[in-house]
TrEMBL record:
This is Cytochrome c oxidase subunit 4, mitochondrial. InterPro entries: Cyt_c_oxidase_su5b, Cyt_c_oxidase_su5b_sf. Gene3D superfamilies: Cytochrome c oxidase, subunit Vb. Pfam families: COX5B. It comes from Malassezia restricta (strain ATCC 96810 / NBRC 103918 / CBS 7877). Signal peptide: none annotated. GO terms for molecular function: metal ion binding. GO terms for cellular component: mitochondrial envelope; respiratory chain complex IV. Keywords: Metal-binding, Zinc.
């Protein structure tokens, strides 16, 4: 058994190492941080920790984590994680509005009153902004608030 284990392990390690090198070679990695400048670009990288001191979240966070942390420090929920309006059932004449900066949004319906059935996931898009839950009949409508002239293909 030990012979079998000792002969298989190096070949597995070699194949895993080759696979990870191939994955790294296929990805391009950009590490250019945006810093606050005269153009007022957003700060998405902290100033870093000074030598001899203990790092904090404020000094070391980057990207979306930093964006969320800076918002929390100012008392703002930047990703608006509050639940949707569940005080009424959504109808075709008066659907429950779902604001989104993305052109598609996934909505979890738990019925009316809230949590009256298991979660049913619905997909709302700019092309099909209205969806009805098959379990409860609640209607949800995407309200796109993102940029109107999106040049991405």
């Amino acid at each position: 058994m030990s012979f079998l284990r000792s002969s298989i392990t190096p070949s597995l390690r070699a194949s895993l190492r080759t696979a990870s090198i191939q994955r790294v070679a296929m990805r391009s990695i950009a590490t250019t941080p945006l810093r606050f400048s005269e153009h007022h670009a957003p700060i998405i990288q902290g100033e870093g920790t000074k030598p001899g001191t203990m790092g904090t979240d404020e000094s070391q966070s980057t990207g979306l984590e930093r964006f969320e942390l800076m918002g929390r420090l100012q008392g703002v929920d930047v990703f608006d994680m509050s639940p949707l309006d569940a005080s009424r059932p959504g109808t075709m004449k008066n659907p429950i509005k779902v604001q989104s900066m993305a052109k598609e949004q996934i909505v979890g319906s738990t019925g009316f009153p809230a949590e009256s059935h298991e979660t049913v996931w619905l997909k709302l898009t700019v092309d099909q902004p209205i969806a009805r839950c098959p379990m409860s009949g609640n209607v949800y409508q995407l309200e796109y608030i993102g940029p109107q002239d999106d040049h991405h293909h």
